[in-house]
Each structure stands twice: as structure tokens, then as C-alpha cells.
Amino acid sequence: MTRPMREPTFWILTALVDQPRHGYGVIQQVTKLSDGETKLLAATLYAALDRLAAEGLVEVDREEAVDGRLRRYYRLTDSGGAALATETQRLSRKVATATRLLDVLRPPAGPATVAFG
Predict the structure, then answer these.
(1) Three-state secondary-structure class, residue 18
(2) Whole-model pTM?
(3) How far is CA 38 from the centre of its chain?
(4) Cβ-count burial 32-49 (b if 16+ within 10 Å, e if not)
(5) 77/59 Cα distance (integer angstroms)
(6) Which of 13, 44, 60, 114 sits a CA distance of 20 to 30 A from 37?
(7) Residues 15-65: pLDDT tens digits?
(8) So what's the pLDDT on residue 108?
């Protein structure tokens, strides 16, 4: 069994599912996908990207020079996609369990009652 992902890791991998992105693009996409609940700082992101690259979950896709600065794009590896899929399934099971238990607490919805009078 693998350990659960930290939330920033989950969002970073998710942000890279559809296309390679440079650091600032990852930050923007994480904010968008999480509805603003997760906001990454640049230092946090680059430390996470280094760790994820060392783990084989992301890799450098390409580098471009923009305004004299090097912009590095990262992409999800097959291992990163598999890890994200595993984590998504784990989270789905947790949600299903909590939903099932919460449904026990909710009274069943009966037919609507209309009073005339």
C-alpha cells in the first residue's frame, strides 16, 4: 500500500495531466483546479517538482529562453499518471464511505406533500 499524497502533490500532478507547464503555469492551474483552495508559493512548487522528478513522477519536457530567462516545462510521467490514478481511487473510496454513512443520518426523501385548503 502506498502512502497518501499530500494535497499540493495531488494538485501539481493533476495540473500536469493535460499538458506540460512551466512553474508559473502550474501555480495558476493548481489555483484554478482547486477553486482557489490551494495556492502554491514558487519556492514550495520548485522543491516539490524537484522531489517529484527524483521520484520519477514528473520530468522536464523542454526548456525555452523567454526574455533572457530560462523557462522549464514539466510533464507528468507514466508513473506519475499511475500514482495520481491510485490516489484518485483512494480518495473516491473515502468519499463513498463517508457518503454512505452520511446517507444513514439523512431521512429518506419521500413524496412531496401538498396541502390544499
Answers:
(1) coil
(2) 0.84
(3) 10
(4) eebeeebebeeeebeebb
(5) 7
(6) 60
(7) 999 999 999 999 999 999 999 999 999 999 999 999 999 999 999 999 998
(8) 66
Burial class (CB in 10 A: 0-12, 13-18, 19+), 101: exposed
pLDDT in tens, 84-104: 999 999 999 999 999 999 988
C-alpha cell at 28: 495558476
Q: What's the distance, CA 59 to chain centroid?
A: 17
Which residue, chain included where needed, has cell 502550474? 26
Residue 99 · residue 76 · CB < 8 Å: no
Q: Name residue, grid cell 499524497.
A: 5
CA–CA dist 68, 62 (Å, integer): 16
Cell of 7: 494535497
DSSP state of 23: H
Residue with cell 522549464: 72
